[in-house]
Structure formats: C-alpha cells, structure tokens
Prior knowledge:
Blueprint: E1 2-12, E2 15-26, E3 30-34, H1 41-48, E4 55-63, E5 66-67, H2 73-78, E6 81-84, E7 91-95, H3 96-108, H4 114-127, E8 138-139, H5 145-159, E9 163-167, H6 175-192, E10 195-199, E11 213-218, E12 221-226, H7 228-237, H8 240-247
Parallel strand pairs: 3-10, 3-11, 6-9, 9-10
Antiparallel strand pairs: 1-2, 1-4, 4-5, 7-8, 11-12
Helix pairs in contact: 4-5, 5-6
Amino acid sequence: MILEIKDLYVSIGSKEIISGLSLKVRSGEFHVLMGPNGSGKTVLAKIVMGHPGFRVTSGDILLDGKSILGLSTDRRARLGIFMQFQDPVEVEGVGFVSFLRSAVESQKESTIDMSELMKELRQYSSSLKITKGVVGRSLNKGFSGGEKKKAELLQMAVLKPKIAILDEPDSGLDIDAIKVVAKNINEIAARTGAGLLVITHYNRILNYMKPRFVHVMADGRIIKEGTKELVEELEKHGYERLIQDAID
C-alpha cells in the first residue's frame, strides 16, 4: 500500500497551516517526521485521518492512487490507516476490550473469535509491559500518559494496519518505557509489514529504531529530507540552521 500526500495545502479559518507539502509512505517503509512546535506535524496527521476541523484547499491525499479526501475517518481506518494520538481522550463507560472488538469487527466486517482476541491482548500486553488490569477499564479512563501510549500500540498490534502514523509515541515516557515502546513499534511493523510515519521532536526514541527516511517540517512544509544522519545533525544544531537555509 502507498499513502501519498500530494502538494497539500490546509487551512483553519483564514490561516494556512500546511503549505504545499508532499510525502509518500509505502508499506514496509519507516519514515520519521520532525520539526519545531507549530510546524504543522500533528495537523498533517489529523488531516490524513479526516479530521473535520481543517480544510484542504488544494492538493490531495491518495491511497494506492485513489483519493481519500472524501472519505470519513472510520472508512479510512477500515482501508488500513491507523493513527496513534499524542493525548488520547478518555471515554467513560466504553470498555477497552469492547472498543477494540468493535474496531476489529468493523475492519473485518465480520464477528471475531473472542478467545483469539483475548489471547492476542494478553500476548501484546505482556510485551508492552502494560500494568495488569488496565485493559479491563474504560477506554483510557484513569490511564497514565505511558499507559495511554502503550494502549494505543496495543490497538495497533491487534488491528494490523497497512499504514501507521504515530504522533509523538515517546512524549511523557521515562527511559525504560521508551525502550519498551520502541521495541514494540519495531516488532509490530516487522510483523504486519506496515508503513510507519513516526512524528517526534527528539532523537531519544530513534536511538532504538532504524528509520530509513527522515523529513524535517517547518512552516507547514518539508524543508529537508535525509537519513538518520539528519537526526544527529538536528541534535547538534537544532532546527534554526535548516530553517534559515530554507529561507535563503
């Protein structure tokens, strides 16, 4: 599967947030998107998933060559796109297991074997070191920041998307949790063959991962592309030099 963002322009009200951005992610590829606060990274992720709060003024988003701009968020998810949010909302009264069961059945358009689902949940919960009892609660209710991140990856493991967008999977995590999360992202992607677009500010999670493509975003557009050496350059010099070079 190929997700292609093609010369995209996005606005909210009269303010332009994405300005002619193009990016292509294929199944099996590992991309990283970095950039300063306010550069539009999270907006881009939300637009790919069909967030109604933003307006695409020009350009397109294609999945295997077909536009998905007219599709609802749930339809995009059924086609195989997954997004892990920075701060997932708490949903009182909706059990985590029930939610996940509904999501899988919606994707497959058929009922699933609950014993197989629970087996998967136990397996992945153990790998992610999720505290016992967390998956028995309401969706994200009372979860710590780290538990929310791990619960989203648990969803990814079970849903097996073709393209996964992970928005700051390392934010709010301690050193040990970052290692666990990175290890599981690597393993889930390898097992499912998913294309990954990981949005992050820092090199710390990338110390345990091997992205093939690195993109730097500023002012709503890609200003620099490269490999992991680009991440190391950013760690040394920050974004200012790249932004100035792009202006010049």
